[in-house]
Amino acid sequence: MSDIVTRPAPYRAASSLGIVVSLAGAALYYLLRDPLPGRPANVVAYLDSVGPFWPSLFGGAAVALLAALAARRLRSAALLAAAGVFAAYAFALLFSAVVGGAGWATACLAAGLAMQALGLSASYPEG
């Protein structure tokens, strides 16, 4: 059995709330930042220009995870959704970094958060 499954519930809850804070912080960043004129074209900027794509994904995943933690139901599914959002963001950043040569650190951070959320999803065997 994995070490993360045997950890006490308070550690799982605190780690899950850390994911919520990360999602909410990313959503607020994309909602409140000033658009930069002449930003380099990349996948993240393109999806951001279509509409509130990233704030909707990050905010929706944060609300879903917070609701699942409060209701004590569907926590694994909400964490898998959060992992999917972080993985999509990491993929967009990595693709942009390969094409444009910048953004590697943020892409690695997003990939790490995706792996943390994926690992936490396995720590809630009851759902």
Pick out its properties:
single chain; 127 residues; mainly alpha; 6 helices; 78% helix; globular
Describe the protein's topology.
Elements lengths: L2 H4 L2 H24 L10 H8 L2 H19 L3 H26 L3 H18 L6
Residues in β-strands, percent: under 5%
Poorly predicted regions are none
- Overall tally of domains: 1
Major sheet characteristics: none
Give the fraction of residues assigned to helices.
over 70%
Report mean pLDDT, rounded to a whole number: 79
Shape: globular
Oligomeric state of the chains present here: single chain
Order of helices and strands: HHHHHH
User: Using only CA atoms, what is the Rg?
Assistant: 16 Å
Written description of the protein model:
The chain has 127 residues and is mostly helical. The chain has one domain. Helix content is 78%, strand content 0%. It has six helices and no strands. It has helices spanning 3-6, 9-32, 43-50, 53-71, 75-100, 104-121. Helix 2 (9-32) runs antiparallel to helix 4 (53-71) and helix 2 runs antiparallel to helix 6 (104-121). The protein starts with a helix and ends in a 6-residue tail after the last helix. The model has no long low-confidence stretch (mean pLDDT 79).
